[in-house]
Fold this protein.
Amino acid sequence: MNDVQNQTDKRNIDIQKVGVKDVEIPLVIQRKLNGGKIDSQRVYAKAKMSVSLNREFKGTHMSRFIEILNDYRKQNLVGVDIKKMLHDMRERLGSKNAYVKFDFKYFIKKNAPKSGLEALMCYDCYFEGILDEDDYKFYLGAKVPITTLCPCSKEISDYGAHNQRAIVKVKISYPEDKHIWLEDLIKSIEKTGSSEVYSLLKREDEKAVTERAYENPKFVEDVLRDIVLELQNNKIINFFEVEIEAKESIHNHNAWAYQKTCKENFS
Amino acid sequence: MNDVQNQTDKRNIDIQKVGVKDVEIPLVIQRKLNGGKIDSQRVYAKAKMSVSLNREFKGTHMSRFIEILNDYRKQNLVGVDIKKMLHDMRERLGSKNAYVKFDFKYFIKKNAPKSGLEALMCYDCYFEGILDEDDYKFYLGAKVPITTLCPCSKEISDYGAHNQRAIVKVKISYPEDKHIWLEDLIKSIEKTGSSEVYSLLKREDEKAVTERAYENPKFVEDVLRDIVLELQNNKIINFFEVEIEAKESIHNHNAWAYQKTCKENFS
Amino acid sequence: MNDVQNQTDKRNIDIQKVGVKDVEIPLVIQRKLNGGKIDSQRVYAKAKMSVSLNREFKGTHMSRFIEILNDYRKQNLVGVDIKKMLHDMRERLGSKNAYVKFDFKYFIKKNAPKSGLEALMCYDCYFEGILDEDDYKFYLGAKVPITTLCPCSKEISDYGAHNQRAIVKVKISYPEDKHIWLEDLIKSIEKTGSSEVYSLLKREDEKAVTERAYENPKFVEDVLRDIVLELQNNKIINFFEVEIEAKESIHNHNAWAYQKTCKENFS
Amino acid sequence: MNDVQNQTDKRNIDIQKVGVKDVEIPLVIQRKLNGGKIDSQRVYAKAKMSVSLNREFKGTHMSRFIEILNDYRKQNLVGVDIKKMLHDMRERLGSKNAYVKFDFKYFIKKNAPKSGLEALMCYDCYFEGILDEDDYKFYLGAKVPITTLCPCSKEISDYGAHNQRAIVKVKISYPEDKHIWLEDLIKSIEKTGSSEVYSLLKREDEKAVTERAYENPKFVEDVLRDIVLELQNNKIINFFEVEIEAKESIHNHNAWAYQKTCKENFS
């Protein structure tokens, strides 16, 4: 059969990215347990993959992306495997650059603050890798829910203060010989809210969480600055992007704040 | 050209609903102004339309739905026009039954509680009409944001109480010789929260809203019961369905409550 | 601490449903392998749970839903466990009725039609259970993608025919002493399209799929009728609801068809 | 009342963006009619706004964003007003930088290719403006649905070819003394598909659209290259970003291609 994709193209345009997206796939992700032991978790993921396409070729071979996914889905993925996968993609598709993003649902056990009862929290996370000629970058991302309690509302009101669920979206990068666990990244974000968010709270826990939030009022600006301080002080991290969005309980719109920083050693 | 849709079908199955959905369209909706005057608002809408299809026909004529939409989109719609439109659909498509739902974005001016400053609130609303042989039913729907403040959290905590944005979804029906304005339905829902939600609040308003919520703690169960009382006591309404969903500020999941009631005169 | 939820309520209203929703949780679902063997799959799920609340109580105990989820999430779920879970919910929450719905992402291996290459397909599925006093109902649901090719477009055009991805949403019920596997339900739906949808297709497969669709043109009405015939003829099924929605490639809106049937033995 | 926002902050961090998002608002957008006449269209929009916040201030004044929106929502917006609005935001909020994005639903009349029948198409569009000290940038964005028909499927099959709805997302920038109408941008994208997408098609139109797509097979790579050529050749445009995503009718995942280009005169 004629291979239309391999026909020559005369428009003289190198394509930066072409591939597949919204491919649903189960993945195995390495995780860190309490005590530092390592095992793995099978997660639900959506894959977005692409390669560059040279000007002389009419099209890429879409089915090869799915075949590569099939090869990698049973391995224990951490950052280092993403690089290997990108090299494989590049080779099997004959391209200069390669890109992959896995958005996945990640569960972590969390204990209630007083009763100590354990339940699972689910976080939207991602691994993103870019191989641009010889330059490899890896990004780790997570969406972390927290509570914010408004300092202005507390200050001006005789009692009470409006508070709400807020979502922190964080994206970081670090050199390939380093490693940051999702468990640690998420924990460092959770502590920056007026209070943390939990799946299971008994009455004694609800009291603790309510009072902690009231003692600890924070604007989205405050949360952002505390996270920025945290990420700036982490020597391993050489790039970060943070967005916090608070689903204001007194409005039908949201408050948000955003920061993006490339440190010196990040080109 | 051969009309495939009019070919006979031998499977012997009457189809209950066949048509188009996610048709984006601007509509003109009648509205009630302060003081009771009536004018209209041009809204963004999504239409879902269908007719029944008799067992002898292979297919319906999809393009006619779009033509009918074109005829009606410039008219000032209220409940009564929906019935006329359904009769038109039935006639032009040669069917026994017809169905239409318009989901639309509806703006209402709202004043802040202390400063009196005016701003627009936007509500997701819908008109839904069913013509089943000679039986016509019209449904009016709205999603109304409110604030809920947790009575348990207030009771057990030395200070503060968690609160959050909650969404009430309400759907009502009433006889075709009666009329209920969206403005009145929405207002009656908004007053059932611990506090109302606003687009624009200055500091004096924020104080009022915060304190009102703290003075007025409510579970989703409380909000639901107050709405049910309100709708039961409204003699015009002969059917209602209510769901309230609170985006808990201390959890990453939601609390919800639901009730559906058909009064005696509703078959 | 004071238990506010147990306080008496004077509004005299029994609440039909109150509980939690959008609780993200990993579940273990029993599955049927090729050859009829049974094992299980760990899936990502969202839980929606509720109980009824008697008029004398002010509120339900939300944290108990999460505790019950924790107990059940490690078991191998099939329809029968849902009933047990509902009885547990009712008992631990002191209510007359209980409700649960698990929406989950379910993977099934599928072979390409010619090359036989294997890859995973992911389907949005759900288990839904209702315990209303002594009446128990279980619903099984799935969203199944297929291809539809327009018979009218084929008939009137000198060559080609527009075709598109369509989604079938199917919901069925059957008596509690019977069982239908998701694998079998999904397979029976997939064969009703102009062609099936696959994750991995090589060139020889793409040729087969393209030609099969062209040889087998179908309106949404045709797909609906074929599914209705299939479900009517299945003696085990006593209730079904089907919606098919085609993402028309020549429009920016969708065509849809819908049918709902309760057989005699379903009250 | 104490103005908490004006308190000093000691963390020494300038915030890049802080503001409001998901503010639903009706806007008035200038539009170009057939024949070149200009009038305006009232649209449904969602606003995202922010300013920078100097290190010495604890918080911004969220309510002022809503007040500014209220001032601008009745004006006829085109690119030039966005700049004025950003200057206003900066002044009223005492900041160095300002940002605004309006996502809106935009209707354009479109005639069927043979019958000439007219109906409305709705496009997701946006205006985005950034004022960074003295540097002003304006971006115009649109999502445009088209049809793609697979060249490989056509080549290898004895008859037929799979085709599908595809969505082009385009974002462009041009100097502030120039102007490009959404109507012209959208038209230039629509012609790059295998065929265009319409709201209303009678049988003669459906034949024309089907045959045109079959005569004109295109990969996502082909569509991307044709759009890149078009945008490169437009001397007014100094930046563009294009993504095309095809909802493959034979798969349950999508094919995509992406390109981003800054021309010389764009810093």
About this structure: The interface with chain B takes residues 121-122, 145, 147, 149-150, 152-153, 156-165, 195, 197-199, 201, 203, 206-207, 209-211, 213-214, 247-253 of chain A (CB under 8 Å). The first strand of chain A starts at residue 15 and ends at 32. The two ends of chain A are 45 Å apart (CA to CA).
